[in-house]
Amino acid sequence: MLEIEQLYGGYDKDLVLEDISFQVRKGELFGILGPNGSGKTTLLKMISGILPYKQGSILVKGQPLKKYSTKQLAKVIAVLSQHTSEAFSYTVKETVSLGRYAHQTGFFNEWAQEDEKIVEEVMSRTGVSALKEQPIQLLSGGERQRVFLAQALAQEPQILLLDEPTNHLDLSYQKELLDLLKKWTREKELTVVSIFHDLNLAGLYCDRLLLMENGKVNRCETPNEVLKQDTIEEVYHTEIRRHPHPKVPAPQMVLLPESYHQVRNNVKITEKDMAINEEFIVLKAPFSLRTMSSGVTGSGMGWHHTFVNRHVDKNYNCENHREEMRDYLKANGFEPSETVGMMTAVHTEDVVYRLYEEQQFSLLVLVTAGVGNAVDVSKSHEHSYCLTPGTINTWLFINGELTDEAFIQSVVTATEAKVKVMHDLNIQDAVSETMATGTSTDSILIAATQNGTVLEYAGSITPLGKLIGKGVYDCTEEAIRKSLERRAKRC
Ligand SMILES: Nc1ncnc2c1ncn2[C@@H]1O[C@H](COP(=O)(O)OP(=O)(O)OP(=O)(O)O)[C@@H](O)[C@H]1O
């Protein structure tokens, strides 16, 4: 649809763009990214024919741009620029209707039924129908942006050029506008070329991205290839992190504030941060820790600064245990969204915790363990499904910076250590009468300060893995012994 070959140009004698080459296919949503002043708007101006270029070629539908008359080009390309000024006091409908100019025929440019239908349709699609009699000066920035988008769409272009279309739009209109453009690229094969400052929106919606740097093409590929941490850090000169979108396969980039480096310096999580009473064990960190957990609240990957292991009766049964837990946390002065909360039928005084220190990092292990629900995982199909309070809760607080890989390996290593204890203490599954590997609702928490030594791995023979193996084994063994002794005394 669009072929740009070795394009050079700028303003007067200043060369802004150098050796720009790329192609845009029909029906593609194509994003242009780049830092301020990298030449994005200049490129868009050249494609729309507003700014002449010095060297190279621009082909629109296979024909040189220079061969199109203004009216011919307006039937193919519509432009929504960044700062559209409105010199006259037009109403919304009049403004949108101007988009039909290139399609009007006859000596008096007659307004046909078709024109009316299209204007009404695009006003409805952009959510401005209710404002149609209002003068555009009286509209908010976002409303005005939608009116000019409607005007561009009324042109029924084959190519739509947009300069930061989501500028001024609130969250829901950003989504609606981009959903609409995406739909039109698919259903009407509209080709969209759009400048984005929001890398995440570009990554979510665009088929391909062109990354500009100092007037040149740095990269022109799929979002996954362009939105790479090192590429973006290099081009934008700022520290960022890339992570996957939780619902769709699109890369997302996040900024790191300067304060990120200051808050954590030299702070270590130790047993001094804990408190124990009859109802719960709590650990309050001085700042949020990166967590991976299977807690009742705060499960999955996240950031939390409060950790609560709450004692419940062993017959605890609640239809909505997550909601009940949230209410409980609130009632006790903990903020549920910032708390990893677990339940245990074990008496809180039977908790075992120990700090393990290496030269460069340390690990606080905390375990509550009852084995009333012991299960041999290879025979679990013989059990009926019933959620009873988690009976081995394992907490690991690591003073160090873990990779995602190390978080996952920490869970594996801790689980292996726990299984070994079950075997060494000969804990049986009461249903299958075989050696148990855990209990039916065990829970785990890995929490890291993300400060200090980088711990890339946590497999069993890595430095962190060795500490986890020993710590979890020792603490779990002692915790199970304590709980067995309590049970024996009761009997
Ligand atoms: N009308 C103009 N006359 C002279 N130089 C200009 C003109 N418009 C832009 N420039 C220069 O061209 C370069 C590229 O500007 P351009 O607006 O294309 O960048 P951009 O990537 O769109 O930036 P931003 O993200 O800030 O909108 C800049 O150095 C700018 O100063």
UniProtKB/TrEMBL annotation:
Gene3D superfamilies recorded: P-loop containing nucleotide triphosphate hydrolases (3.40.50.300)
PANTHER family, sorted: HEMIN IMPORT ATP-BINDING PROTEIN HMUV
SUPFAM superfamilies hit by this protein: P-loop containing nucleoside triphosphate hydrolases
Organism: Niallia oryzisoli
Protein name per Swiss-Prot or TrEMBL: Adenosylcobinamide amidohydrolase
Keyword entries, A-Z: ATP-binding, Nucleotide-binding, Translocase, Transport
Ranges of residues in domain ABC transporter: 2-239
Pfam families: ABC_tran, CbiZ
Stored CDD domains: ABC_Iron-Siderophores_B12_Hemin
